[in-house]
Q: What sequence folds into this?
């Protein structure tokens, strides 16, 4: 079922889509100015911006890249990244609940293992204390006075 449109009808559709894209962009920029200091609000604003960006990508692909004239399976394949969006939204919403300490390990500070060639040797040798940063700064400052 092929549908032919006049040139003026096509122009009207493209202008409508451009106006929709401009409105969505203004809403996205407006969302960035909402004060979101608490974590639930940060997550909500982030998900809204990601969702609006994906809707803009859909409009661009569907109208300007002419996916509206394609076959059913081509549209399904083009829409398949929505699965990735849902997965990303789940990760974004779960991020505030994850402890940072589990993923970011900090090395021991102020400890030096002399003459070690491997991590196994480092654990077997006795640790030697290293002077603090303040003490080193004081020693360095003495030379400049």
A:
């Amino acid at each position: 079922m092929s549908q032919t449109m006049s040139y003026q009808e096509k122009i009207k559709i493209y202008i409508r889509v451009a106006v929709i894209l401009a409105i969505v962009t203004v809403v996205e920029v407006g969302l960035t100015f909402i004060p979101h200091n608490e974590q639930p609000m940060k997550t909500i604003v982030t998900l809204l911006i990601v969702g609006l960006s994906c809707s803009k990508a859909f409009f661009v692909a569907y109208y300007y890249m002419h996916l509206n004239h394609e076959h059913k399976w081509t549209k399904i394949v083009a829409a398949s990244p929505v699965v990735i969006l849902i997965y990303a939204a789940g990760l974004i919403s779960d991020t505030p609940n994850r402890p940072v300490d589990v993923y970011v390990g900090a090395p021991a500070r102020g400890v030096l293992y002399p003459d070690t060639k491997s991590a196994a040797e480092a654990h077997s040798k006795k640790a030697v204390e290293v002077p603090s940063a303040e003490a080193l700064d004081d020693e360095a400052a003495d030379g400049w006075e």
About this structure: The beta strands are 111-112, 128-129. The first strand starts at residue 111 and ends at 112.
